[in-house]
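Sequence in, structure out.
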Amino acid sequence: MSRPHTPSSPMSKALKLFSPLILGGKKPVQLQHRVIMAPLTRLRTGESGVPTDLVTEYYVQRSTPGGLIIAEATNISPTARGYFGSPGLYTHEQVEGWKKVTRAVHEKQGKIFVQLWHSGRVGHVLNQPNGEQPVSASSIVLDDGLSVAVTSVGRQPYSVPRVLETHELPGIVADYKRAAEYAIEAGFDGVELHGANGYLLEQFLCDSVNKRTDGYGGSIENRARLTLEALDGVLSSLDSSQVAIRVSPYGNTFGCTDSTPEETYSYLIKKLSPLNLAYLHIVEPRGLHPTAQNVPEGGTTKFSRDLYDGVLMTSSGFDRSEGIEVTENGLADCVAYGRSFISNPDLVHRLEVDAPWNDFDYKTFYPLPDMPMATGYTDYPALHTKVKLKMTSTSNLFSPLTLGGKTPVQLQHRVVMAPLTRLRTGESGVPTDLVAEYYAQRSTPGGLIIAEATNISPTARGYFGAPGLFTSEQVEGWKKVTSAVHAKDGKIFVQLWHTGRVGHPLNQPNGILPVSSSAVGLDGVNTSAVTREGRGKYVTPRALETREIPGIVADYKRAAENAIAAGFDGVELHGANGYLLEQFLCDSVNKRTDKYGGGIENRARVMFEALEAVLTSLDSSQVAIRLSPFGVTFGCTDSTPADTYGYVLKQLDVLDLAYVHVVEPRGFHFRGPQVPEDGTTPFCRARYNGILMTSSGFDRAEGEKVMENGTADCVAYGRPFISNPDLVARLKVNAPWNPWDRKTFYMPAKGALSLGYTDYPTLEQKSCLLKLLALISFFSINMLNIPPQWRDPMQWGFLCAASFVRGISCFMRYAGVFCVAAGMLLIFLVGGLFLHAVIPIMASSTLQLICHVAVSLVLLFNIYFNYALCCATNPGVITAKWKVEAELWDVDIEEEEEEDDDDKENGLLPRIRPSAVNPDGKQHEGQVKLPHVQLMDPQSVHVARQRSRQPNAEDGMSFCRRCRHFRPPRAHHCSVCDRCIAHLDHHCPWVNNCIGRDNYRYFFTFLVWLAVGSYYAAYMSYQAAFTDLSREQYARMLVLAEIRSLNLSASNALQFAFSISAAAGLAVSILAIWHVFLIVTAQTSVELQINRHPRNRRLHGGKVVSPYSTDSIHGNWELVFGRCSYKILSLMPSTRPPPNERTLSKKTKVEQTTARSPDAIV
């Protein structure tokens, strides 16, 4: 047997004492830490031995999530009682009392075993029925001089015991077995046999007390016989993972010692090792358990570790450092703390943080009948408090559950994934890796998944794409699914399905008709069959012959066996929703006259024959069934549903199945007639005593309600699991659900099979864009250390700041960049302070979302508008626009035949040089026609184009590009608009101001709006990603399911609209920033060449201009903006006057061109 497996955990890297642990056995219990509460006798149950609410409070105070409590020593029979006030497990009243305790511990996600106890000679006649003598292995009185018996009249000396006869010993073994069965019924996770500390089992084991000469005395094998027989008796009813034992080698408690303890306990422990128990509990001989002779070096724990390969627990007087040491060096797997738990209800937390312990009061360990029971029991304070801990309760929906059957499945919560038909396996019916991913996404530790309805045979198939369990390939495909679920510590059943008449010949072998109980069609049903050729109308089925029905039963059995071979934990027979088993059960479909029709017993015969066949191969804990009483799915109803399902539930009650799954008639499962007033589930609860599961349209509140009132033991959720793979986590924190897309429930008509299947997001998953934006804003906000109450006003403050900056940006050349930045900051603070008082009034989330969307649109408009203006007033853009207009007007642009070799060698930029055409159509030097592309610096390009684009102008006159009036040659101002215009004196300061004023103003405003829009988009994404989930207006923003949903509410639609606008704003921001980068850095080397050229040096007053000067920047704008935006900007109003007549011929247009001297340009 291998050593116990330890799951990886972040805590295990620190201290092993607080790391997870898996106990032994076939179906082991999983613990979250290794601090165990040892069994502690407290004597608080009086004469009856029934645990009270005070006992419940005591244990729930000391329970922790994933922690193990071993409840106090509990009598297995009336004659086993040695102490007055100790509890028992031999009456139904005691079982009911213990149920309160186990339920309270499980509500706190804890685990609890109970110690089964026979005190033997450690008792008194006053504690025995009818005043009989206590019993023991031999008649040797306990007289150690240290202890006395606790009776109803006080403390008394121990009585002389009576020797147990050999024929009485099987009765003792039977008492252990019955008490263990009662323990499981009471809700305990397991039992621990008390074979230590001088009680009955150890009295037989140790030769100082056992003086027998029969088969239970003498040799070690004989003396250990009773202990091993008791274990075998318990193991015949319980799984090995539910059974443990406590022994105390080398101890001397109550005068019980052995002359050869090493040989005795070596034999016993070696016998225990193959049993694969949950754990072996060793008591170190110290403290209350005095040390006997011959204790081995290293202690009892090390002695036992060398002999036992399973989970080893040690106890008796350990403190924190000793517990850490014994687990770190591997001598024990867990440590049981006793008295320290009495005075420290939060001992696990104290051990974890290394906090001091409360002192215990020994006088209150075992109270006398006249003492207050709560004193020293439930009144010890927790850490940092001086008030006693109160009982707490959480939703039963998340408490553990043990299913039915002989070896039941253990669940950690009661949220079950209902079977959901998804049709993703194609023609073969073989589950793929995509199916495995789908189920793995929805599995949770200790959670149950019921896999989708699965065909039991080729003729059972009613839907194209449904999986099967009738071929070896399908079994291998399902193994991937079960392995993926089990890897996440989940449980998975599969639903076995025969659709009956709900099918189509295209889905049947060789196109045969589907079968049913009778040849009754699906008339009036609004749905249609799913086939490989699309949707098809249902057909009238063929009635099954009587001789064919055993074959159907055999199909169920074979599919169930295949399911176990595929790794499923169990199967659920689909006897609901109008499929074959219900078609036989309901008299609206079943019109047969043989033994499978007529009376209720006959109509239910196929269902129970199928169940019995499956139960011949599977344990009852692996079999379940689904029913839909009072439903009317696929037109399947019954005239007397109460009588029909009353009979069915009564027959199911005796089968001890894992569970019965009941479908409430609502939603997709239409409500039929005669439904009880309080619903189907209460109707079934009153008639079925096993585990009852309910489903169909439950939300969190309804699920909690049905758990609280005990109507059902667990709730199966269907469609919510489709769109919420982390539904269990969402239910725990009461988080909103993703909406589902009904169009992708079944195989999608278009797109990948994963659509609406494995692409629904969890609470932790967001889009990549959202994460990027959120991180940017997250770090910026946290770096600025902005208080939360100011974060909402910030976005509105930025909006105010941007609006004011637009008005003052025209003064930028006077105020400077830093002054404007200071003004922006001031406006931002004032605007934020003002809006901080206004925003709280906007309580409506819908109103806030409308404002967010409006702001987003305003920001986007201003970003685009200012970007366009910045481009429109740029000389390069204007020139490009004129070029487009020339092409539209069908004006030729001829190339210069000769090039300036000097310019070409210097690699200058294209320039426009004038040419002329005489009235006779011939070209002459000195005459202006249209611009031609040659080499010229950027500034000269602009001026040349300005000078050459003046049709209908008189010779010597130039055209004002602002007011479109003529002005005198070489004039610096237009006589009409009185504004500076471009002219030939490039070094004149007015030129730069005229060209740059609008560009700077619009460009600066564009950058402001760009910053505001980027921040706003990033901030809102931060809100969506990092705010509390209780804020619904942000929790579901930018979730993929919102895009797919066809039922978007107004609030969600606004969220989605804003998200799209914010993303678009970010995209524009990134594009614009890239343009700015190009403006500063592009073509630097070319500009240096231009500025160093003698001609350009002359134009600029003989000085070399920096590539970052105004002229150089203008040139770069022409390269960047002119090429990127002229097509869009060509739609703006023309800045060039059109010809007088659009219909003039090309020759006439050329003749109208005013001649210019080339010297005027050069």
